[in-house]
């Protein structure tokens, strides 16, 4: 089962997002909402791996111009419905980030929240995140770290899918580091992200 999940991640995310309950809650990620204060009003933000849209929709409500891309057709349909119901104009696209045509130097910020990519894809996709930023643009990221394996508050169970500060520093070596922390914390984001947790999070600035 675990193998099937990760060899066919689209199926896994579709099943998860087909549940009536929003599994990561309806509120934005706390780190993202705090760090979004750094982004000027009206800026263009890309949210890769936005699932059913909780973060993108919240950012659009704050007045940012938001684009999202996610692998899961079920998540994307749900995000589109929520955006429409809220009267928000957003670009919500279904695609695999590994083959998506990333626009060059178009966004003021990128928000990568719990987007756990396999090591054969992660550096390439992280490089694309920097590439899609305008010079001076911000990359805000939060992911579970390997210490999360001791907790049952969510995240992948394969250590190679978990991120460390060292991994992020290396992937974003060409960017300035505004902050970067690997910490133990408490999360409360719906049924699948609740309780003590170990995360790495940071904000990088494209040079
Ligand atoms: C743990 S969920 C997090 C969703 C959202 N960021 C949130 O915090 O609510 C991970 C998301 O990444 C998406 N994802 C994983 N690999 C992807 C890929 N290669 N291309 C696009 N989306 C991907 C999944 O479809 C899923 O929606």
Query: Helical residue percent?
Result: 25-40%
Structural class: alpha/beta
Widest beta sheet: strand line-up: 3-2-1-4-5-7-6
Please give the largest β-sheet. Answer: 7 strands, mixed
Bound ligands, each once: S-adenosylmethionine
Question: β content, as a range?
Answer: 25-35%
- Looking at the structure, what is the overall shape? globular
Count of strand segments? 7
What is the straight-line distance between the termini? 43 Å
Question: From the alpha-carbon coordinates, what is the Rg to the nearest angstrom?
Answer: 16 Å
Q: Specify the number of helices.
A: 7
Overall mean confidence score, pLDDT: 95
Order of helices and strands: HHHEHEHEEHEHEE
Low-confidence stretches: none
Name its key features.
29% strand; 7 strands; 29% helix; 7 helices; 207 residues; binds S-adenosylmethionine
Molecular structure report:
This protein has 207 residues and is α/β, with parallel strands linked by helices. It has 7 helices and 7 strands. The protein has a 7-stranded mixed beta sheet. Strand 4, helix 6 and strand 5 form a beta-alpha-beta unit. Helix 2 runs parallel beside helix 5. The longest helix is centred in the middle third of the chain and has 13 residues. It is globular. The relative contact order is 0.16. The mean pLDDT is 95. The site of S-adenosylmethionine has 20 residues, from helix 2, helix 4 and strand 2.
């Amino acid at each position: 089962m675990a193998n099937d999940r990760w060899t066919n991640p689209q199926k896994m995310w579709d099943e998860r997002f087909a549940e009536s309950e929003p599994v990561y809650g309806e509120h934005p990620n706390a780190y993202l909402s705090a760090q979004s204060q750094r982004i000027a009003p009206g800026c263009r933000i890309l949210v890769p791996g936005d699932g059913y849209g909780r973060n993108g929709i919240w950012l659009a409500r704050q007045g940012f111009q938001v684009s999202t891309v996610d692998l899961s057709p079920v998540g994307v349909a749900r995000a589109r419905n929520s955006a429409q119901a809220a009267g928000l104009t957003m670009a919500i696209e279904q695609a695999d980030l590994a083959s998506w045509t990333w626009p060059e130097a178009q966004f003021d910020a990128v928000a990568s929240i719990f987007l756990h990519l396999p090591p054969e894809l992660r550096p390439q996709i992280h490089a694309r995140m920097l590439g899609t930023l305008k010079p001076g643009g911000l990359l805000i990221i939060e992911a579970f770290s390997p210490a999360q394996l001791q907790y049952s508050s969510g995240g992948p169970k394969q250590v190679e899918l978990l991120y460390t500060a060292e991994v992020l520093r290396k992937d974003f070596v060409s960017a300035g580091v505004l902050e970067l922390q690997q910490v133990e914390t408490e999360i409360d984001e719906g049924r699948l992200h609740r309780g003590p947790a170990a995360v790495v999070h940071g904000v990088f600035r494209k040079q």
